[in-house]
Structures are given as C-alpha cells and as structure tokens.
Design goal:
The complex is a heterotrimer of chains A (about 290), B (about 280) and C (about 325).
Chain A (H helix, E strand, L loop, with lengths): L3 H32 L18 H8 L1 H32 L6 H9 L6 H12 L6 H8 L7 H4 L1 H26 L3 H9 L4 H29 L3 H6 L11 H11 L3 H31 L1
Helix pairs in contact in A: 1-13, 2-13, 3-8, 3-10, 5-8, 8-10, 9-10, 10-13, 12-13
Chain B lengths: L1 H33 L4 H4 L14 H9 L2 H32 L5 H12 L3 H14 L6 H24 L4 H9 L4 H12 L1 H17 L3 H4 L8 H6 L9 H21 L1 H8 L6
Helix pairs in contact in B: 1-13, 3-13, 4-7, 4-10, 5-7, 7-10, 8-9
Chain C lengths: L3 E10 L2 E11 L4 E5 L6 H9 L6 E6 L2 E2 L10 E4 L11 H11 L4 H14 L15 H13 L5 E5 L7 H18 L2 E5 L3 H7 L2 E6 L2 E6 L1 H6 L4 H6 L6 E4 L1 H5 L4 E4 L4 E4 L5 E10 L3 E8 L6 E6 L9 E6 L5 E3 L8
Parallel strand pairs in C: 3-8, 3-9, 6-7, 7-8
Antiparallel strand pairs in C: 1-2, 1-4, 4-5, 9-10, 11-12, 12-18, 13-17, 14-15, 14-17, 15-16
Classes of the chains: A mainly alpha (about 290), B mainly alpha (about 280), C alpha+beta (about 325).
The complex binds adenosine-5'-triphosphate (ATP) and magnesium ion (MG).
Chain lengths: ~290, ~280, ~325
C-alpha cells in the first residue's frame, strides 16, 4: 500500500490537520510564555516592561495560588473517587440481568449530555438551594437542618455537581470493559470453585484495570480545567474556597486585567496537565501497538 | 428451584437498578417537571411531584421574552460548522494515517492527542487578545474555528480507528480501477465508512454543543450559544425556577436525544479508541 | 497486447530486501503462475507489476512501454484480490461498472459490457444484489467480472481461490482456465496450490526468498527440476531427497526420486523398509516407509490398493531413469 505517489499524497492529506493543530498549539503557547515575562496589565496596555520571572514568583507566592492548587487537587481527586467507585458499582449493576436494562442505561448516561452551565444551575438552585432545593426540603422533612451548600461547603458542592456529570462517562467505559470480559473466563473460575467475590477480585477487576486507568487519566485532563461549573455557581468563593487553577487564571486575566500574572498561571496549568498527559499518551501509545 | 431463585433475583435487581437509575436521572427529571409548573408551584413547600396544574407558560415566556432562538441558532451553527470543518480536515488525514502509515504516523497521532490535553486556560489570554485584534470576539466564525481546533484531534482519532477496520485491498482495487485519490475517498472510502463518520459527527456535535469555556469567554451576545444563554440565569431576579427549568430543557433536549442515540460510539471516541 | 517484462527489478521495504534483482519475461497471452512458499514475495511481485508498490530499482515494461512510473490505473492491468475486494456499498452491477465509470465510458457502452460480463460469468440473477448477499463463489465471479469488463492488457490474480471450499475451487479453476482460452489475455496467477499451478499454467515461476528458482512449463519443472528446491516444491507428494551413501553411488551429493517412481513389492527390491503410515485412498495408496538409507521415511505411491499396514516389511525399487541427481550446491547434474 505504498508507492511514492500515495506516500506523498498521504503527506499532503495530513498536512492541513497537522499544520492547523501545530499553529493552534504553538503560537498561543509561545505568546503565553512571552506574556508571562511581561508586566502587562489590560488597564495599562501601553507599558509592558520585561520583568523576568516576577510574574511567576508573584503568582506562586500568592496565597490564593496555593489555595487554588489545593482546591484543584481536591476537586480532581474527589471527583475521581466518586466516579470511579460509583462507576464500578453502577457498571456491575447494569451488567446484571433485569427488566428494562436499556431504559436504565439511558437514565444513567443522561447527565453526561447536560451542558455544564445547565448542570451547575440546576444543582445550585433546584437541588442545593437551602430553602427551595429538593435536598433541603428532604432534609427538613426528616427533621434535619438543611445546609446552605454553596456557602458552607462550596468545594464539596462543585465536586458533587461535576461527579454527577462524569459518573456516566466512567460507568459507560467500565461497562464496555466489563462486557468485553468473556464469560468463558468467569465460568472457568466458577468451575475452579471461586465465589462471586473472588471472581470480582481476581478476574473482573484486573480485566477492568486498563479501562479504569483510561477513565482516570482522561477525566483528570478534563477535571483540571473545570470552569463553567464554578463560574455560574460560586464564582470561586466564598473567598477563594472554591477557586481552582483555571478559575484563578481567568480571574487574574478578566477581573484584574493582569495579563502577565495570568499568563504565568496559564503556564503552570499547562505544566500540571502535561504531567498527566505524559502518562495518558504513553498508555494509549502502547495500546496503538497492540 | 434454581429458576425461582434467578427470577426472584432478577426482580430484586430490577428494583435496585431502577432506583439507582432514577436517582442519577433525578435532577433532569425534576427539571423537566418543574418546567411545566407555575413559578409558585415550582417553589412550593412541600414540593409537588406529579399532581400539579401542568402548564406550558414557561416555554411560551422563554420563547417570547428572551432571544432563545438566537442562542439556539448559534449553538446549531457552532456545532455543525465546527464539525463540518473538522470532517473536511480530518477525513483526508485519517485516510493517510490508516492506509498509508509510516513509522511516524503513531507519533503524529499521539501528538495530536496531546494538543487536546493543553488546558484551555493556558492559551486563553493570547487567543482572547488575538480575537480582539482581529475583531473576532463574539463572532461565530472565530468560535467555529476554535471549536474545530479543540475537537479536531478527537475527529481524526475516531475516523482513524474506523478507517483502520476497512480492508486496504478495497481501496487498492479502486486504484486499479482508475479511481483518482478524490474518487477513492469520496466514492469508496466515505460510503463504506458511513456508520463511523456518522458517529464521529454525532459525538462532535455533542462536544461542541456543550463546550463551556471558550463559548463563555469569547462571546457576549452576538455569537453566544445556549451555554452562555443559560449562564445568564445565574444571577436571578425574583422567582425563576420554572423558567430556568424550561430554558434548561430547551438547551439540553436536542443533545440528550442525540447522545442517547450515539452512546455506543461515545466510549470509543472519548477514549481515543483505547476502549472499544 | 499484454507482454510484460521485468528487468533487474528489486524491492526492499526499508532495510529488508524482499526481492533481490529479478528478471522475468511474460509473453502476450501467456498464463503464468507464481508459486513458492509463504512469504517468498509472490504477492509483492504481483503488486509491483500492478503498480500498487514502487520498485526500489529496475524497470517494468508493459507492451513495450516503460510502466515503471505509471500509476496502477494507467497500466491497463486488472487485479483480482484474495479477499475479492468488492465495494460493499455497491450492487454487483455497480461494482462491475465501476472501472468503466472511472474511465468515463458512456452509459450505453457500460451497460452493454456489464451485461455481457454478467452473462459470461452467470451473474444475471444476482446483478442487483450487494456483495454481502452473495456466496463466496459468486463474489469471486463478480471480482472477475469487474476485471474483465475493462478488457485489460493482463489479469493479475492473487490466490483468488484460497477462500473457497474444495469443490468450488475446482469449478472456479476450470472457469478461469476456460476464460483464458476464450479471451487469450495474459494472466498472472499467484497460488499456493500445486494442482492449480500444474493444471492452469503455461509457465510456472518458482520463487524462493524473492529469487526465481526456475521458470518453465509445468511438465518441464516436474521432469527436469533445476535444483533441489524446485524438485522438492513441485510435485505432490514431495519428491524424496536422499543424501549420503546412496547418493554417492550415483556420483551426486543428493538424489531425488518421486513417490510415484518407486516400485513396491512385499518380497524383493532394492531397498528394504518398514511401513510407518499407510494411506489407502482406493485409487492410490501412499506409504511412508522407514529405511536404513535416510533418517526420514520415504514416501511411496502405488496405483490402486496395496494391502500393507503398520509394521509390514516392504521392498522399494526406484526407476533408474527417473532418479534426479544434484551436486553439493543443490543444482541438478545433467
Ligand atoms: N509493506 C510491507 N512492509 C514490510 N514488509 C513487507 C511488506 N509487505 C510484505 N512484506 C514482507 O515481504 C515478504 C513477502 O511478502 P509477500 O506478501 O509478497 O509474500 P507471499 O509470497 O505473497 O506470501 P503468502 O503466500 O503468504 O501470501 C514477507 O516477508 C513480508 O513480511
Ligand atoms: Mg500473498
């Protein structure tokens, strides 16, 4: 399948996509890198002196930054725990034989298709509002004190909203992996006298391990840059209690007009994401050979 | 005996599974119900579940008062436009990668994937400033290009995994039969890959429709899609649950239905073929 | 019309040289069969001729014009693939018409040619079906139909029958031979199958690791193999090749005797042996006989039934004029 003719045609066919992505990646990133060394404020765009690493030291030493970094990590880890744990359970459930499997499947995956702004507003107002929200009313009806989610536990609220959005993703992928496990294997283990729990532990879970890794890595990429959910619910507050790195950079740029510091923050976010990306790319690359 | 046990077990499982399914689905269901309540019923205590006066007045209000249609058209333009542009670029690229692979093909694929992992906030400022400079801020064209670029890696990957399943010999037969490169792609490859292309299109429409970083940051009103329209409800005046619900349903319904149809392909697309 | 000539053709994939320099002449109208063990480069050679792969060096001439640089479509060759490579989204009619459509032929002429081809290949009843709704044999016919409508200078077949069951293979084999008689177009045919090669070919090309070991008519290869490789490859069951003392007696490093050229007896003969396996087909009997001559058992064929079984003693006598002699390089001594 290869003559010089087809090979050069192939190169020409690939070129537009490659060039488009190259520009998309390289140009803005280079600009961000450049801005991050300038004292550049949107309110005074005329003077943009070179300041070296000042923006970085400013950004990194800002207490909000460390708070945002911790929040980002809590957000990512929290959502991962809920979605992976819940995803395994729900996937196991959906893999059972019951009436209406297909309908329940649709119900379970539905949240994934809800746009982030809708998800966040619906949860904020109709679920978590202390007075009118369903959760609050439920708590009062059983005699408990409803809590004001968005001000008392803002980060947890966002974790719940985001986990709700991503649970279907984890479930769907884990279910796909689960269903690709040949029943021969399970039956063989049954013949060998393994109980349901040991089958799960020694056969099913190892079989799903790759899918779990994929779920973790892909979700991490997306979770590192959660934005809309914060913007429409807590605005990062109260204080910086629910500010993550993405939101902090956005604030620096849009609210404070500090292009230099925001750029430095952007570069930090890129570095963080790259650490995860390296693992993911390796994993998928290995899969490509197989 | 064993049969009765399995039957009992099945019924138990049915109850459990439906309970879990409804619990997960509940916020959407609740939104759906609330959208048919009056604003007063919407915040009544205790909440009313099914037996209230169903009304479509919220939908009517949304339709009359807000520019709902304008936002929806923008969502449609953006998702269709970016997907069409994506196909235009990605079909040739995926053809090349699937049927004329070189040792570097794998690296290129992985590199494309890695661009998808670039956090948007890392390039927000330059893109924003470039958009300002080129007058693209709040323009559909600018946003279509951005959405096209962020989803291009996924389109290429999905098409690549689908094309890989088509035997190269058929394309070679076309070549022997005198098909030009364009004919080979449009008359042989594309018709054979229709299911794959269709699911790629579906997934990308979904992703573009729900994208909520660039659409929020690069638009104000003219090019703003439904994501931004809904975000404007975050600072409410007065009673608005029912209207928020109606607007939300209008924003998510089309994509929810599309999503339900494309759930199988979703896994493959979102994992870059790592899980099929 | 369809003379094909390869001169110093060489093909390497990166470092791996698959076909070292090779020359081959194919005359117009000839039925040429490429045989050789798996992985020897038969398909590669065919694809070089087709233009689906570039030659690394050397020239390919088709009908006197240098075709080395021509794209596949311009070489006026038609190819039938092992997997048939039919277009699954087109009806049989559209499949067959496709090359004509690509050539920009007018509709009436296309229809005429397609219905003509369908008639020749007995496809009339399936003409509006999709390939997915056809049996293997029918698909094969469509693939051939798609090839013949173009009236190519030559047909290239890459193991076209290997996906068919035994009975269909025999039928299609005859059909292709008949087609060749009728069209008198050059055909190049790659196969693993001895019988296909021997019965269909005007000329067989035996390939081994990209080399041509011998070119000749089927009977020539059978009766005068140029070396031990061809001797062992052509003929079924394989020729018995013996080294050592017995070969010395004939002034050779190796001697070869075909199973059908050894006379069998239960009482007397040149070589004494013990039957290890006996295969009784009714029409023939194949014996694998252990002897002192050679570590491996010799294969012997007897006409009709020869009633011996495991452990029986038999005597073997090779026909003196049918013993092939080879020197220490494996080349035939003539
Ligand atoms: N595109 C390629 N890149 C690298 N090596 C290749 C390529 N195509 C074929 N080869 C190698 O060339 C050799 C010859 O392959 P070819 O397909 O021609 O064999 P063949 O004689 O047709 O075998 P078979 O009878 O099994 O079909 C093999 O070792 C194969 O691995
Ligand atoms: Mg082959």
């Amino acid at each position: 399948m290869a003559t010089t003719h087809t090979k050069s045609a192939a190169r020409a066919m690939m070129a537009p996509s490659v060039i488009a992505l190259l520009i998309w990646m390289a140009v803005p990133l280079a600009m961000t890198l450049y801005y991050s060394t300038l004292g550049y404020s949107l309110y005074n765009p005329i003077s943009t002196p070179f300041v070296g690493f000042d923006n970085y030291s400013y950004f990194l030493s800002d207490p909000t930054f460390s708070a945002a970094l911790v929040n980002t990590l809590i957000l990512v880890v929290g959502v991962l725990c809920i979605t992976v744990g819940g995803g395994i359970l729900v996937a196991l459930l959906l893999d059972q034989d019951f009436y209406g499997v297909n309908v329940v499947r649709l119900l379970v995956i539905a949240p994934f298709f809800v746009m982030p702004t809708v998800a966040a507003l619906v949860w904020k107002n109709m679920m978590m509002n202390p007075v009118y929200g369903v959760i609050g009313q439920f708590l009062s009806s059983i005699g408990l004190q409803p809590i004001d989610w968005m001000t008392e536990v803002p980060l947890l609220s966002i974790i719940i909203i985001v986990a709700w959005q991503w649970l279907p993703f984890a479930t769907l992928i884990l279910l796909t992996a689960l269903q690709s496990l040949s029943s021969d294997q399970k039956e063989a283990a049954e013949m060998d006298g393994a109980g349901a729990l040991s089958i799960f532990w020694y056969i099913t879970l190892p079989h799903m391990s790759r899918a779990i890794t994929v779920v973790i890595l892909i979700q991490t990429i997306f979770l590192l840059s959660i934005f809309a959910e914060i913007l429409v619910t807590t605005n990062g507050g109260p204080g910086s209690q629910s500010t993550n790195l993405t939101y902090l950079v956005y604030q620096q740029a849009i609210s404070f007009g500090d292009v230099g510091a925001a750029s430095a923050g952007g570069i930090v976010a890129v570095i963080l994401a790259n650490i995860v990306a390296i693992f993911l790319v390796r994993l998928i690359g290995k899969n490509l050979d197989a | 005996m064993a049969r009765r046990v399995t039957q009992r077990r099945k019924i138990g499982m049915t109850v459990l599974a439906w309970a879990v399914g409804l619990l997960i689905f509940f916020p959407i269901l609740w939104t759906f119900l609330t959208s048919f309540k009056s604003e007063l019923t919407a915040i009544s205590i205790p909440p009313q579940f099914l037996f209230f006066d169903w009304t479509t007045e919220n939908y009517a209000t949304i339709y009359e008062q807000s520019n709902y249609f304008h936002y929806m058209m923008n969502s449609i333009y953006l998702s269709l436009g970016s997907t069409a542009l994506g196909l235009l670029f990605a079909i040739p690229a995926a053809w090349a990668m699937a049927f004329s692979p070189t040792p570097r093909t794998k690296d290129i694929l992985l590199w494309m994937l890695s661009t998808k992992m670039l956090p948007a906030v890392g390039v927000l400022i330059p893109i924003y400033l470039l958009f300002v400079n080129f007058g693209l801020l709040d323009s559909r064209l600018g946003l279509i290009v951005v959405l096209f670029l962020i989803n291009l890696p996924i389109i290429v990957w999905m098409l690549y995994t689908y094309f890989k399943e088509i035997p190269g010999e058929i394309l070679e037969a076309g070549r022997m039969d005198g098909a030009t490169l364009r004919q080979e792609i449009t008359q042989i490859l594309a018709p054979m890959a229709v299911p794959g292309i269709a699911s790629t299109v579906l997934l990308n429409i979904i992703l573009a429709w729900n994208e909520a970083f660039w659409t929020l940051n690069l638009t104000t009103s003219n090019a703003a899609p439904l994501t931004a329209f809904i975000a404007s409800f975050s600072s409410p005046q007065g009673n608005f649950y029912a209207k928020l619900s109606a607007a939300s349903m209008l924003a998510i319904a089309p994509i929810l239905i599309l999503g339900w149809f494309s759930q199988k392909q979703l896994v493959r697309g979102l994992t870059f073929g790592a899980v099929k | 019309m369809g003379a094909i000539r390869l001169e110093k053709v060489r093909k390497a994939f990166g470092e791996a040289v698959i076909i070292p320099e090779l020359d081959l002449d194919i005359k117009d109208g000839e039925f040429v069969v490429f045989v050789g063990p798996s992985g020897c480069g038969k398909s590669t050679l065919l694809r070089l001729i087709a233009g689906l792969e570039d030659v690394t060096s050397g020239d390919i001439t088709i009908d006197g014009t240098n075709a080395t640089e021509l794209p596949p479509a311009k070489r006026r060759l038609a190819m039938v693939f092992q997997s048939y490579a039919l277009y699954p989204h087109m009806s049989v009619r559209k499949n067959i018409a496709f090359p004509l459509k690509m050539a920009g032929m007018d509709k009436a002429e296309i229809d005429k040619r397609v219905s003509n081809a369908a008639k020749i290949l007995n496809l009339d009843n399936y003409i509006d079906r999709r390939p997915g709704q056809l049996s293997g044999g029918q698909r094969q016919r469509v693939a051939i139909g798609r090839a013949i409508v173009r009236e190519p200078a030559a047909f290239l077949f890459d193991e076209p029958l290997s996906n068919l069951d035994a009975a269909l293979r025999v039928g299609m084999r005859l059909e292709i031979s008949e087609l060749h008689q009728r069209l008198k177009t050059t055909m190049i045919y790659v196969t693993h199958d001895q019988v296909e090669a021997m019965t269909m070919a005007d000329k067989i090309v035996v390939l081994h690791a990209g080399h041509i070991e011998q070119v000749g008519s089927p009977l020539e290869l059978y009766s005068r193999p140029r070396n031990t490789f061809v001797a062992g490859f052509i003929g079924s069951p394989k020729m018995n090749l013996l080294t050592g003392a017995e070969a010395k007696k004939h002034d050779a490093a190796t001697i070869g005797v075909r199973p059908e050229h050894i006379a069998l007896s239960t009482s007397e003969g040149m070589w004494k042996g013990t039957v290890k396996v006996s295969e009784h087909l009714g029409s023939d009997t194949f014996l694998h006989v252990e002897t002192a001559l050679h570590p491996e058992p010799l294969t012997v064929r007897a006409d009709g039934e020869f009633p011996v079984h495991y452990g029986d003693t038999v005597y073997l006598t090779p026909q003196a004029d049918k013993i092939h002699r080879f020197d220490d390089k494996g080349l035939a001594i003539r």
